[in-house]
Amino acid sequence: MLLRLVQRSYVVVCPLSTEAATTVKSTRSGGGSGITTSLEGGTSTVTSTRGRDTLERRLLSLIYAKRSAVIAISKWKEEGRSVPKYELNRIVRELRKHKQYKHALEVCEWMRVQDDIQLLSGDYAVHLDLIAKVRGMNSAENFFEDLPDKLKVPTTCTALLHTATPTSSIRTLLKLSL
Fold this sequence. Notes:
This protein is mainly α. It contains 9 helices and 3 strands.
């Protein structure tokens, strides 16, 4: 196993000339990842294709709650990259899976203020669930009350009821029935 690890990370640089370039393919069976080594002016630079820079990686690497997901998305857009809705929904799902609720909520709130992103009732249900987890049930109820009537569909009502505790669920049910 140690030999395999050494074989994967070993890069051979042939000093034939200063313009020589060597490509070494990884021995992983998964394929697709390689290491490119080139000599430029006597120095070697190593670039790995395995470490692609994606928005998901940037947001999942925000470990501390004080870091802002909005800043990471803004930097991503400043670099001229697109931010499609389906990718943001997938990132929110991953952040929730890793229990990074605050960052997932920041992404949802950023999506909500964007004019070019059309949100559906399911998106608001996820947003409602995250508000309840991060800010509490009262904030979630206030968010639900501020939703337009066309978005108060069973999806968002169910999300609100799932976040309610047994004692507050009766009060929530009464609000929903009115």
